[in-house]
Structures are given as structure tokens and as C-alpha cells.
Amino acid sequence: MDPKQKFFRHFLDSVAELQDLIDQLGSVSPIAGERQEAIDHVLAGISKLQQEVSDAAEFTPSYDRKQYSDSIKSLQDKLNETLANITPKSRFQFRRSSIKAHVDMGAPENDPRLHPGSFSRNAQNHESEQHQEAIESEQHQEAIESDDKVGDLRSTTGVTRDYNAELSQPGGQFVRKPSFSAAKNIGISDQSNLHIILPSSAARATASGSLTGLNSCIVDMSVPTAQGRPFPGLALRDISQSLIIAGHVDGPVHITGVTNSIIVVVARQVRIHECRDVDIYLHCTSHPIIEDCTGMRFAPVPECYAVNDDSGRENQWNQVDDFKWLKAGQSPNWTTLSSAEVLDESVWTSVVPGQPGKSVEEILHQVGIPRH
Known about the structure:
Oligomer: single chain
Number of helices: 9
Helix content: 25-40%
Shape: globular
Order of helices and strands: HHHHHEEEEHEEEEEEEHEEHH
Distance between the termini: 33 Å
């Protein structure tokens, strides 16, 4: 593909991803800095995109660069407008007039983090602290009324609860089904040799999702995300020799540092970085993107994990773009699974959910993990 066209597609995907993240800011809790972290992530994304535009100047005409600059400015305006709508006026002062008619994104003084609309953590006043206490008090009451024993991501003081430590407690080879009924987000990290299935009660916890630092695990998040509560975005990072059934994601999925694993996901965008020997069963409405990857194999998502809405949407699971393969022809870093290599539907419905006496290791071996 022509580098100019390739960058154009990458730019459009990046803008769409940032727009999705901005749209989701209102649903992110302001407690314990979660919303500020999400804002910082968006700001970093805008800054990175501007740098990529600058790096691509050598093969993009001036007209295209002007269009890119205008699109980035629109993202900044949208971010400022969104923050003005979701932020109590007592906490922050938003001045629309401070936005310039034209912004030179290459100038340090115009870094989006320095805009008056960027809402520094230090801008909070005494009234905002009272507002914070009121929110935490409300969450405290909700936690008292909930009978959830495992899945509450936040303690009653607003501090992150280490429920991952609870999942790691000795329990034999039983399948763990944490309810997450009082949680707002799904965040499973630093686990090994666990079989975790999220029940429908976790549907209210799909405001955001992340799986990090997993080894020899089976994680199935398909049930709550198929109940009309898909993740707006999902991050999978540093996972090895595991089976991840990520379920449904309305926005982007970022897969980074995954090795010798199988992933099942339905998403609008999928970006895969620094992965090796991973099979991905996929339904994706845009071209999947890989970068710095080897041994990637793709197949359509199994029927048992599809929902009715998926059938009416185009599936581009095999239209993979390799950003590190600029030569003509097929990239050697990915291929499609043959019909003989694709796991049979009965494996997904009978083996993957677990059986009495079956260990995680045995199930992983039956689905072909690690890859031989």
C-alpha cells in the first residue's frame, strides 16, 4: 500500500478511537483520579497523533497536512466541550474564548495539556472536595447494601480494592465466577492458572475493561458483554499461554505483548502490538492492525459467541494491515487459520467452560495452548 494512503487510514482510525474515548469520559468515575487518568490518556493520544503527522510530512502533501491539523484541532475542541459538560463548574473554570482560531500543534506553548480547558488536578477548591466526599459517601452506602463478596473494584473509602489478591487465594481447580455486581469496571491483573467466568451480574461493571499480567489463565467475559452492555474499550497487555474470550467491545481493543495465546473478540477496531504466536477469532467492522508482530493467525469468531447484531455488520477479520510491512504482497507476519486448524464449535461449548476434574492446564492443552 502507498505510504500516503496507509497513513491516511491510520489517521482516520486514530481519530475515531480518540473520539470514542472522549465520548466515554462522562461514564468514567471521577473517584480516585480515574477520570483524570482517562483525560490524560486522551491528551497523550492527541499529542502522539500530532507527532505522527509531523513525522509523515515527508510523504504527505501540504493540503493533507492542513486537513490533519484541522481534524486534530476538532478533537481538542471536542475534548474541551466534553469536559465543560461533565465537570461541575464549581470545580473548574472553562473559558471557551481561550481556544484560538488556529492552533500550531507543533509549538510547545500549544500543548493540549497547557490549555486552560485541560483541567489540572490542582484546580480543585474546597467546594469540589465536599462534592468528592458526597460521592464517596454515596458509594459507601451502595457498598454496604450490596452482597457482593469479590468483585467490588473500589473499597468504601474510594481506594482500589485488591480483589485480584482474593482471586489468587487457594481454591483448587474450581472455576471462579466473581459476580462483580457492585463494580464499575473489570480489571483483572497478575494472575496465573485461573479459570474465570464472568456471570451476567457483571454487566454493570463493563464501563471499561483491562486484563494485564496473566499467565496460563482462561478468562471468559462473553456473557455480561452480550447482555447489551459491551465494553466501550478494552486493553489486553502482557498475557502469555492463556485463552481470553473478551466478548463484545463497542470501541477499540488494544492488544499488546501477548504471546502463545488465543483471543476471541467482537469489536469495531482492533490494534495489535508486539505479539507473537497468537490466534485471534475475530469479528471486526474495520481492518485489524498489527505492528511488530509475528506468527499471528486469524479466524472468524465462533458462532456461540456471536449475537444477533453481529450478523448485520461487515466482518473484516481477514483484512489485516501490517504497519511494519510496507512491501507489496502478503505480510509474512500473519495468516488465516485453515478449516482444519479452526477449533470445532463443540470445543467452545463443551471444553472451554470447564468440566469437573479438568484443570486449567488440561483445558488449555485441548485448545492448543501452547502452540506446537
